[in-house]
Amino acid sequence: MPNITWLFWGVLFLTAIKFHEANGQLASSDDTILRAILAEWTAAPPSWGTNDPCSWQGVTCVNNRVSQLIIPSMGIEGSLSADIGRLTELTAIDMSYNPRLGGILPPTIVDLRNLTKLLLIGCSFSGILPDKLGNLKSITYLDLNTNKFIGSIPTSVGDLADIYWLDMSNNELDGPIPKTLGKLLKAGHFHFNNNNLSGIIPPEIFNENMSAIIHVLFESNNLNGSIPDTLGLLPSITALRLDRNQLTGPIPSNISNLTTLIEINLGYNNLSGMIPDLSALKSVSNMDLSNNSFDLSDVPDWLNEMTSLNTLKLNSVNLQGPLSNTLFSSLQQLEKVILSNNKLNGTLDITGSTISEDLNKVNLENNDISSVTPDIREKISISLAGNPYCNTSTNSRYCLTAEQVKPYSTNLSRCSDVNCNEGDGEGINPVTCSCSIPYMGTMFFRAPSFSYLGDTEKFLTLEKELWTVLNLQANSVYLSDIKFNENDYLTVHVSLFNPDGTMAFNRSQISDISFKLSNQTFKPPDVFGTFYFIPETYNFAEDSSGNSQLSTGIVAAIVIVCVILFILILGLGFYAWNQKKSAERAKFQNSPFASWAPASQGTGAAPQIKGARWFSFSEIDKCTNKFSDSNEIGVGGYGKVYKGILPSGQVVAIKRSQKGSSQGELEFKTEIELLSRIHHRNLVGFVGFCFDRGEQMLIYEFVSHGTLRENLAGKTKTSLDWTQRLYIALDSARGLSYLHDLADPPIIHRDIKSANILLDDNLTAKVADFGLSKIVTDSEKSYVSTQVKGTLGYLDPEYYSTQQLTDRSDVYSFGVVMLELLSSKLPIEKGRYIVREIRQAMRENGNGELGFLDFLDPIIRNANIINLKRFAELAMQCVEEEAMNRPRMNHIVKEIESILQNEGLSPTSATSSQTSFTKRQRNVYSDQLPLKNVNSDEFANSAGYRFSDKIEPM
Ligand SMILES: *[C@@H]1O[C@H](CO)[C@@H](O)[C@H](O)[C@H]1NC(C)=O
Ligand SMILES: *[C@@H]1O[C@H](CO)[C@@H](O)[C@H](O)[C@H]1NC(C)=O
Ligand SMILES: *[C@@H]1O[C@H](CO)[C@@H](O)[C@H](O)[C@H]1NC(C)=O
Ligand SMILES: *[C@@H]1O[C@H](CO)[C@@H](O)[C@H](O)[C@H]1NC(C)=O
Ligand SMILES: *[C@@H]1O[C@H](CO)[C@@H](O)[C@H](O)[C@H]1NC(C)=O
Q: Which tens digits make up the pLDDT trace of 214-267?
């Protein structure tokens, strides 16, 4: 029997491999441990699992033991095995920026006595911190920022005698601050912000021997009691943030001993008494004492001596009396002064030769100011709404909602004719103006010492530092979306481009860059203070091509063994395989998909149809957990929608037609062809389809923040503010404009409505559901005559009466969505049609077209009235009765961009990133709604909620 011989050779080769392994670099115990760690991961760098663990991505071996695991931003998924505690020679672990790496932090981690660095930023670790954390005797950097840790901070933390960097911010920790922190004499950074820590700030945690401490960040917790006066002992502190707590009592006067301070923020507490004289704080450039219950007092004179001040926030602190010109003329670094909600009176005077050139914002809303001196510099934006002055001078520019400073963003104007496929993660490389895939993320600066966001010079320096330290080509950094978030952190969206001109970064480049950011090797210019970075997931191109690191000898051995096994299996399975294949061939030849059939079934590669992938039923069955109920995220007339995770880690939404409701094969093919041609950042991405075992399924990218309708109806945790609504309008207008003008042939959506606009976690809007879409072919260029379909309330009346469909029908529906963005109301509610009512109200108000104000959602009521009005007028143009009077989609895009610019916002940047993530994610995909036989209000009401009965807890 030849089979016996083959078997013999096979065993021989396997033995050879085993032998090679045993002789490898690494001690066999560490080898086993690393493999045990790998076994708990469902996604890992491709080199992991190959023969020699010392050659795995990010693994460093010294003297046959594992000494470092540096694998940030590698797309690792799964949990961390308790075996990690047995890699006892480990000195550094960086697993940051792997958002799907989570579970508990194994208590065995404290056995790593040689560990100096443990960086787990931006993962999803949960559960409590190991009680014996203090056993990590060698540790100097412990960074657990942005995870989901709960419970209290172990008191053993006080035993980390060598610690310099201690960051536990952005978790869900509660309980008290351990007194033992006072033992950490080498500490430089206490970052505990954004948790739910409670109780007092123990006086014991500060003492004069803490000579290294520069940052104390306790903001956004639940702390109470008074500010301990031991704080005044810290010899070198530069940033102190205790804001957004429930602290009471007076500010201890010896705070003025902290002459090294640059930023002090005690805002949003219940502090009382008089504000002590802080004029000794000569280095402070950013002071926020706002929103406290201090005793009623005049504007303190000592403020005039704080000559480094550029940002002063004393809003809602009970100030009275006149506001002297001296404040502005003596503080020559001033950029921003916020004194709103006090009882300041008299005349506002910001004139004189010594007024700071950088002064750009003075907010005095809701005071008693009665007059203003003339000749105030144009550049200074002053708001006096809510002062007696505005009762008499209603037309003054100071009385309208203040316009905002246009923040800096990297200048891309010389690349203005370049369009990249942002949906696939592309961006414009500012060096070459070509499209490539940047590494993107957000930098959070928690204690910047400036506030003027138009300060080009400072941001250019930041760019330069970034490309220098990260070894990128000059100018290959793109900064955008710069703003202060709700915690008063300066957030900057960063895109980093590959230096060597190729499209994308490889794994070791990403790992190097990430580590320089997680390890704080990169230090921003001083005025930015410290930072942390949270990247977006990077899709590595190389993963699909596979890169093994095996030696050629081993490869040869494996190839030979595989060939032998293959022949064996082939011999056994040939008959069955042959039978199946001919059956399949017969099936395909009768199917419209025949030409798409995989060229060679044997390769196992999925066939590509213009970017869309073909999935087998079993693949989909597996990734949806056999279509389990818990994966179900929506139900519609046509069937159900499931959430699934592809082996690549991509999360998808799978629309599965019900048996019986599925369309004909030809129609299905047409739809797939249509979908696979459409790629745009603001259209829900089409991933592929399944046409197998009589099933028809469409696979889309998963968009996790629900529909616009749900977000407007308050079904998500956050409510949309005016800026977010503007960006959503812009995004969806861009998506539609793409369908009308750039898709070839053009496409009319036919069912634009808020329930068909999905939002992702960054609140980027994506238009969904092309189920009703109509392709406009050349022969019918101007209009398509068709059976009327769409959703009541959004339906173009002209299309309804003439059955002639043009792209202006989408414009009408879009106008209704814009009105929804203003009012948050459904288009038809309790028998009232919002388009008609607003039109009437605007007409009745004569030329004061402000009639829409009654319909305004209270949440956006204090938005800039001029921009609100422009937006409302644009919406009304869209819902003109006669199609020819409506603007085209590309015009609407331009108009919304211009409104955004008026708001001082960048129309090029994406929506506010880092909006809070809803804990309950859900997703909704809707499908066509034939209009026939439906015309009740009840129907219109339910339209937006067709799938809302299913909520998936996460
Ligand atoms: C780890 O620590 C032990 C003692 O604590 C020491 O003997 C050993 O050399 C250290 N290993 C490394 C790599 O520093
Ligand atoms: C924070 O802690 C307080 C008790 O100190 C508790 O009442 C509150 O529910 C907690 N908040 C959150 C969001 O966990
Ligand atoms: C400042 O610190 C010194 C020594 O630490 C102390 O003697 C002095 O009283 C402090 N001053 C204030 C105003 O607390
Ligand atoms: C401003 O307010 C102070 C204190 O309330 C008061 O004494 C003073 O007369 C006021 N001045 C003016 C001009 O109204
Ligand atoms: C990591 O940071 C430390 C401390 O800032 C620094 O000494 C070290 O060189 C950094 N490591 C790398 C590889 O950049």
A: 999 999 999 999 999 999 999 999 999 999 999 999 999 999 999 999 999 999
Q: Which domain holds residue 725?
A: 709-954
Return the CATH number at 426. 3.30.70
Residue 896 sits in a domain whose CATH number is 1.10.510.10
Does residue 404 fall inside a structural domain? no
Is 314 among the domain residues? no
* 375 in catalytic set: no
- Residue of 253, 254, 256 with the most ligand 3 atoms within 8 Å of its CB, for mutation: 254
Does residue 862 sit in the same domain as residue 723? yes
Per-residue pLDDT tens for 780-821? 445 555 666 677 888 888 888 888 888 899 999 999 999 999
CA 580 to chain centre: 47
Please give the sequence-ordered ranges of beta strands (E in DSSP) within 421-530, or none if there are none: 427-428, 435-436, 439-445, 477-484, 490-496
199 lines ligand 2 (CB under 6 A): no
pLDDT reading at 394 higher than 50: yes
- Of 243, 349, 481, 751, the catalytic one is 751
Query: Is the peptide bond preceding residue 745 cis, with omega within 30 degrees of 0?
Result: yes
CB of residue 224 inside a 6 A radius of ligand 4:
no
**Total domains, the chain:** 3
Nearest atom in ligand 1 to 67's CA: 13
Q: Which helix (H) or strand (E) holds 83?
A: none
* Ligand at shortest distance from the CA of 387: 4
pLDDT tens-digit readout, 267-285 = 999 999 999 999 999 999 9
Contact 643, 952 (CB under 8 A): yes
Dihedral through CA 175, CA 177, CA 181, CA 186, nearest 10? Answer: 110
On whether both 423 and 291 belong to a single domain, the answer is no
Determine if ligand 1 sits within 6 Å of the CB of residue 89.
yes
Tell me if 326 is assigned to some domain: no
